[in-house]
Specification:
Layout (H helix, E strand, L loop, with lengths): L16 E3 L13 E4 L3 E2 L4 E10 L2 E8 L7 E7 L5 E7 L2 E2 L2 E2 L1 E8 L2 E10 L4 E9 L11 E6 L9 E6 L6 E6 L7 E3 L4 E3 L2 E6 L5 E7 L8 E8 L5 E12 L2 E11 L7 E5 L5 E9 L5 E8 L5 E2 L1 E7 L6 E8 L2 H4 L5 H5 L4 E2 L1 E8 L5 E16 L5 E17 L5 E7 L3 E3 L8 E5 L2 E9 L19 E8 L5 E7 L5 E8 L2 E8 L1
Parallel strand pairs: 1-39
Antiparallel strand pairs: 2-40, 3-40, 4-5, 5-6, 6-7, 8-9, 10-11, 11-12, 12-13, 14-15, 15-18, 16-17, 18-19, 20-21, 21-22, 22-23, 24-25, 25-27, 26-29, 27-28, 30-31, 31-32, 32-33, 32-34, 35-36, 36-37, 37-38, 39-40
């Protein structure tokens, strides 16, 4: 089974975990090659949560190891070009008597760095530190380097750090958010307490280019950062949404694109508007030419529904919208999700999450969404004790193709039904190569021969295959088994029980 943790922006390696089957073999004729290592045994009480990346020395992954007697440990593992484990390093350390809480590691300028933070109670501050690691043996011969300091972090406020890299990977940005990814003002009954965020931009030698703290005038409980990034010049961008008060009985969201120039004293804010349409969900990315691309779903009725796809391109200099295009889902497409009668009456879709936007090398983009919802079931035993079970559903996908001029060429539905009590083996991974889009997800093996899209068999962890869906440039698609159960390479981590294999997918 494929196990999905996260997709890492700006990383060519995507984390995928799957069930190791006997007699694994690559399928021919689907444009994909699969190579797996020999089986190894996982450390007890551990789980892989991040595929860091690769260089000439090998491949690097991060593993969480839980202990009943100590805090969770993070282990960095190195695999050679033959996908064999060579080294493992537990991240640990202290600064001025305070324990460093390491989060993960990343590759930058062909060097491996771990990032951690320490909380200093006497000053109510949280400090991010960088630890360089030797990519040969994972040793740490140098001391930790202080990168960012967040002031005014009270004990009950989490505080978090993010790392982003510029498209040309010549700059790296460290961002400190005061309350677990939110930038705003904390409301209390007596007063408003300012929350201060901080950003620092560094070059390939980890020399600071600029750093600055800033505030936003929003209530913390209403404002959320959707995504953040830096461009090749070191300007810092983030996309935020504010949950406004209800208007005419309907909840309102306001989306803002924010830019913090290295030469500016405060962020510049640009509201996003689709006139009479609602933005249901969206994200952004920075194109190779420095332009800002924002895309997502819109609705004509409600924030929780979707009518179609929108795509906006913003000029990198004036930061004004150059073009905005829309594509409403037509009746035939909507009829794949509902009855023809409801589709003809203009009923919109719901429960779809905007998953990712992939910028293509030719200036176009691919937008991917999937239907996601959670159901609950509560039972009561003879003693009157209640137990609630959660089931996570990841169903059909919507894939949209945007051409380089910003027009939406086509939108297709990819049938999929997944449900389980854990999200670990649900969802999908993706790759765009030349004129094809590849999707990989766990599926019921009976769907290999099922031709009726409304008769898709649910995946529940049994009789599973790793399904490969190949979408052509005209929107037509075909599916095949990836296997039985780097220029364009996806790193795999395979597990069955307490054994695992490393693998490479080459498109």
């Amino acid at each position: 089974m494929l196990r999905f943790e996260k997709n890492m922006k700006h990383y060519s390696l995507i984390i995928v975990l799957f069930l190791v089957a006997n007699g694994v073999r690559a399928q021919q004729g689907n444009g994909v090659q699969v190579r797996l290592s020999e089986k190894s045994k996982e450390p007890m009480s551990s789980v892989v949560y991040d595929l860091i990346g690769s260089n000439d020395d090998g491949y690097f992954i991060a593993r969480l190891k839980k202990s009943y007697l100590s805090a969770t440990e993070i282990i960095i593992e190195k695999y050679d070009q033959q996908l064999q484990l060579k080294n493992a390093k537990v991240l640990s350390g202290t600064v001025d008597g305070e324990i460093l809480d390491y989060t993960t590691a990343f590759l930058f300028n062909d060097k491996l760095y771990a990032i951690g933070y320490a909380y200093f109670r006497d000053g109510d501050k949280k400090v991010a530190y960088l630890q360089e690691m030797n990519t040969k043996d994972l040793s740490t011969p140098k001391d930790q380097v202080e990168m960012l300091v967040m002031e005014g972090i009270e004990k009950d406020r989490l505080g978090s750090f993010r790392v982003v890299k510029s498209p040309d990977e010549q700059l790296v940005g460290f961002i400190g958010f005061p309350n677990d990814g939110k930038i705003a003002i904390l409301d209390t009954k007596k007063q408003k307490v300012p929350s201060t965020a901080i950003v620092g931009v560094f070059d390939t030698q980890m020399q600071q280019r600029w750093s600055r703290a800033f505030q936003l005038d929003y209530r913390e409980k209403d404002y959320t950062i959707i995504d953040s990034d830096i461009d090749n010049k070191g300007n810092f961008y983030w996309l935020g949404v504010n949950d406004d008060a209800k208007v005419d009985g309907k909840r309102q969201y306001s989306y803002f694109m924010n830019v913090y120039s290295r030469d500016g004293e405060k962020p510049t804010e640009y509201p996003l508007s689709l006139d009479d349409k609602f933005i249901s969900s969206c994200t952004f990315d920075i194109a190779p030419d420095g332009g800002i691309v924002i895309s997502g779903f819109y609705s004509e009725k409600d924030l929780d529904d979707i009518k179609g796809v929108f795509y906006t391109r913003i000029d990198p200099v004036s930061r004004m919208a150059l073009s905005t295009s829309f594509k409403a889902f037509d009746t035939a497409f909507m009829s794949e999700f509902m009855s023809a009668r409801k589709a003809s009456k203009g009923k919109e879709l719901n429960d779809f999450d905007f998953a990712e936007m992939i910028l293509r090398e030719d200036g176009g983009a691919v937008l991917i969404a999937q239907k996601y919802y959670v159901t609950t079931s509560t039972t009561t035993d003879n003693q009157g004790r209640s137990r609630t079970t959660y089931t996570y559903h990841y169903n059909e996908m919507i894939v949209s193709n945007i051409n380089p001029s910003g027009e939406i060429d086509w939108v297709v539905r990819i049938p999929k039904r997944q449900a389980a009590s854990s999200t670990a083996f649900l969802s999908y991974t993706s790759m765009v190569k030349d004129d094809k889009i590849y999707l990989v997800f766990n599926d019921n093996e009976r769907n290999l021969t099922e031709t009726k899209e409304n008769k898709i068999h649910p995946y529940n962890g049994k009789k599973s295959v790793a399904m490969l869906v190949t979408i052509a440039s005209d929107g037509s698609w075909a599916k095949s088994a990836l296997f039985d159960n780097n220029e364009n390479t996806t790193l795999l981590y395979a597990e069955k029980g307490r054994t695992y294999k490393m693998g490479l997918l080459t498109f």
